[in-house]
Amino acid sequence: MIDFPLPRLQPQEAAVYAALGLKSGSRPSSRSSALLQRALELFQTCSEPLGLCAAIASDEFADVFSGQGRNAPVTPLKKIFPRADSLHLFAFTMGARISEEIKRLFASDDFALGSVLDAVASLAADQAGRVAEEWIERQDTEQKNSSLPRAFLYSPGYCGWHISAQEKLFARLRPEKIGITLNESFLMSPLKSISGVLVTGPAEIHQFSEVYPFCAHCKSPACRERGMARSA
Amino acid sequence: MKILKQIAQCLESGDEAGVPPLVRQALAEGIVPKNILDDGLIAGMNTVGEKFRVHEIFLPDVLLAAKAMYAGMDVLKPLLLSAGVSSRGRVVIGSVQGDLHDIGKNLVGIMLKGAGFEVIDLGNDVAAEKFVAAAKSNDASVIGMSALLTTTMPVMKEVVDLLKKESLSGKIKTIIGGAPVSQNYAGEIGADAYGYDCAQAVAGVKKLAAAVQ
Fold first, then answer.
1. Closest-CA distance of chain B to residue A80, Å
2. B173-177 and B193-194: which strand pairing?
3. Does B100 contact A31 at a Cβ distance shorter than 8 Å?
4. Does residue B151 surpass a pLDDT of 80?
5. In the predicted model, what is the mean pLDDT of residues B130-148?
6. CB–CB of B98 and A29 under 8 A?
7. Which long-range contacts link A101-106 to residues 24+ away (Cβ below 8 Å)?
8. What does the pLDDT profile of chain A (232 residues) look like in tens digits?
9. A73-87 exposure pattern, b = at least 16 Cβ within 10 A, e = fewer
């Protein structure tokens, strides 16, 4: 289990505005600012962050990764994980209450507040991935006394790793223990949950220049940017 | 008319409490509900959509305006129904099978209602067959599909192919959107339109619905 203190997960106001489409340099209206304050209050009261992490051997992960055999023929992760120092399966949820609150807001036509809370919760879930990455990096540094290992989270559903791999990931990690379940389409409930594998090793293993067929449809190439940014 | 302009401006400022009294005032002045809808509420939402398109305002402002629109519609809806005024058309929307992300789809639905469309929202994780069956049974002219995962995008093609197979492509048009989706992808799979954001999606649906009629 990893500790996820809420203040570390709460996104910066500027990040929420950017996620909602506010152009850089623009100022939100006073009505929008008031909405964000209300959303942040709800975030504080409705969040129940819980995470789960477990080490996995490379050959065992190869089986999880292959899932139901529906991955893209070539993927970055297939080349990255065999070079890792360590691998950890990971799942995290913001809890059911916040997703239910977002649903309730939309159902009662309070969609302005609902969409702002949704953006806050999504950013917080993303931030949880970064918290886990840093936690694993600290663990690896302490255990191996190596310098600056880099941990990055890779998730089914992205970069050619088919979402059906969730089935094997869940069978091994059992995120049901923290309240995350999978539906028949391999999607997680509560909605504001993330899962995947934390791949730890020298920064260069995460870097790649190949353009894969699925990259053509990707508008948020964070996989590439984060490897470059944090290795600098 | 001055009151219709006031309604539009009140809606644009997201004043949910202010719109209904103005709508009632317009009715009291003898303006027919259809004109209040078209030249007050929808006109206001069109301005909001345009300001959003040019980044003059951002999403929460649009949604506050939409909420004000709904408040005005609560007053008008029974009168429009009794006058037999039909909607601008029916649109079936949903997030494709394998995708639980529905915020973008919800926002498009809100904006479509604001533009005068009747929206049949199938929710998320919707199979191709369900999209087509719902469009047929509801006599919808447009299917709007959303995907946030690259791995779920192929379901959009399944819908397009299914419509072709059932010879419905001319009667039921398709529009797609979502983070990994692009104009190129729409062309690649034979979808009729692509919406980069909710404002563009509404503009696309308007064109498609007009083409079908």
1. 20
2. parallel
3. no
4. no
5. 95
6. no
7. A101/A42, A101/A46, A102/A191, A106/B106
8. 777 889 999 999 999 999 888 888 888 888 889 999 999 999 999 999 999 999 999 999 999 999 999 999 999 999 999 999 999 999 999 999 999 999 899 888 888 899 899 999 999 999 999 999 999 988 877 776 556 788 999 999 888 899 899 999 999 999 999 999 998 878 899 989 999 999 999 888 988 888 888 777 666 666 666 655 554 3
9. eebbbbebbeebbbb
d(CA B139, CA B121): 14
Q: Is B25 helix (H, G, I), strand (E, B) or coil?
A: helix
> For B2-82, which CATH superfamily applies?
Methionine synthase domain (1.10.1240.10)
The pTM (predicted TM-score) of the whole model is: 0.81
Please give the backbone phi and psi of residue B190, each rounded to the nearest 5 degrees, phi first: 85, 20
* Domain boundaries along the sequence of chain B: 2-82, 90-212
Task: Give the pLDDT score at A232.
Answer: 38
Domain coordinates of chain A in residue numbers? 6-231
The Cα of B132 is separated from the nearest Cα of chain A by a number of Å equal to 19
Class of domain B90-212: alpha beta
Q: Do B90-212 and B2-82 fall under one CATH topology?
A: no
Tell if the CB–CB gap between A188 and B152 is shorter than 8 Å: no
Would the CB atoms of B59 and A115 count as touching at under 8 Å?
yes
CATH code of the region A6-231: 3.40.109.40
Out of A32, A106, A191, whose CB is closest to B58?
A32
Measure in Å the smallest separation between the Cα of A56 and chain B Cα atoms. Answer: 25
The stretch B110-135 carries a mean pLDDT of 92
